[in-house]
Give the backbone structure.
Amino acid sequence: MSQVPTELRDDLPTFEEAPPPRDHGPIDWTGLTSISTAKTALEIGAIAALAAAVFFGAEAILRLTDTPTYVFPKPTAVVKTLVEDFGSLYAPHLWVTMQEFLIGLAIGSTVGLALAAVITQKPFVEKVVAPYIIAMVTTPMIALVPFLRLKLGFGLSPIVFAVALASGPMVLINAATGFRRTDLAKIALARSYGASTFQIFRRIRFPLALPMIIVGYMVGSIFGLLTAVGGEMVAASEKGGLGQRLVFFSSLIQMDKFGAVIMIVAALGVGIYVLFYFIGKRWASWEA
Amino acid sequence: MVLDPRAATAPASVLEDVNAATAKIRVVDATKVYETKSGPVNALEGFSVDIRDGELICILGPSGCGKTTLLWAMSGLHALTRGQVLLDDQPIAGPRPREIGMIFQDANLLPWRNLRQNIEFPFEIKRETKDRERIAGLVEVTGLAGFEGAMPRELSGGMQQRASIVRALAQDPAVLLMDEPFGALDAFTRDEMNLLLLNLWSETGKTVVFVTHNIGEAIFLADRVVVMTSRPGRLARIYDIDLPRPRTIEMTFEPAFIGLIQEIKRTVEAGGPRTLEVE
């Protein structure tokens, strides 16, 4: 029989077994990170021209048809209230929403990332918990907000909790896809230099998963923002928030102020996208 | 004791026997059975060979004959089902980063690290101070100077494989195990890399075990060529290559070289005489 000690029979799969296919799991968001940016003056000019056409075109149509503000606000009126009332009407609520969003994202993504790292090491655990993860990914967490409000009171915590529940599974599912990308040759390389399991994780598995982790954070952030604003619309805290302002201004038919809040929410969403786009460019550019 | 399977079929030329005292690596009765869904697969069966210190030995065989299985067992990356590998008379039972350097198919560089970071990777794993002087010397010799900051995908296959050789040699291992390192390269780059390898080998005096399925490459490089049968991989025959050194590309056009190719090709195609099975 074998003369090699049994404790050294490692669990490293051999090269003769086909490597698992590199699928992106049930949800593939990688397209979000691979839009090319404008480079030439022509492209930038065209983008600016279209933006101006939309803005002033809408303004012209609304003026010509003499549409009242309560039906549809003029772009200039929206910009006017946004600039003049930012500090008094919008900034406090922006701050409330940002707190809910950032704290919720921090909690949800940390738990999601840690779970992804653990479950991908144990295929059995992954199979058992997969249905719950799918359920959490597909259930709109906004639906839980009224319930959470009853349980957790009228502070920020119910929305923070909902944001964590919405963003966590997104980070988890994408990060898990990343951690499943096991490149046996690269693991063998590290092992041949005597790498420990932790070193293999830190030096091989984690960098290999990083592009998908970044995608997970991007998608999780977008879902988190959605849940924060939506949750405030459903059942806001006593401090308000951007979603609560949307309900408030629309109930008063102050559509210019409503439009201003929409602009702030849209800017937040685009900001998240741009931030992660550049993070991806900086930390995952090797996977072009 | 291990029988020397060459005894039965060795050509008339007198072969110098490798005995246990001079062997750097001894592979004894190496057998590996993989458990697959369609039943056990015998990848390697009763393979034995003794490898001299400082020798460049090529292991040649058709695809799927267990060459890589053998090499991974020699590197300690996986265990054998039966038999063992001895390095300096010590059984190999796990990776031996101090003595063995491994060079993989397709360079196997880490794509998120630049060339310098790739070369320094083993130092980080071993938590050792980087031997910058040695690295700089190897980078110079392999013609990689000036490319230290480049990312792997910006480099040609040949340059990537040079970097992987530097990565292994920077550790100064006594033994270099090479797993079809130049298999993915075009013929011209392959010649170039083979010459580079011979230069590095003659300067450093490492023991090199080179796995390939290319007969010409094996003869060009090797002191001895070990021919394996197709699955299960067994020893078919060992050829001593008496071509003078330093070897040149010109030699590969000479009748002696071509004759060797033909002879080895016949051995490979015949699947090797089964009577050579080592008990």
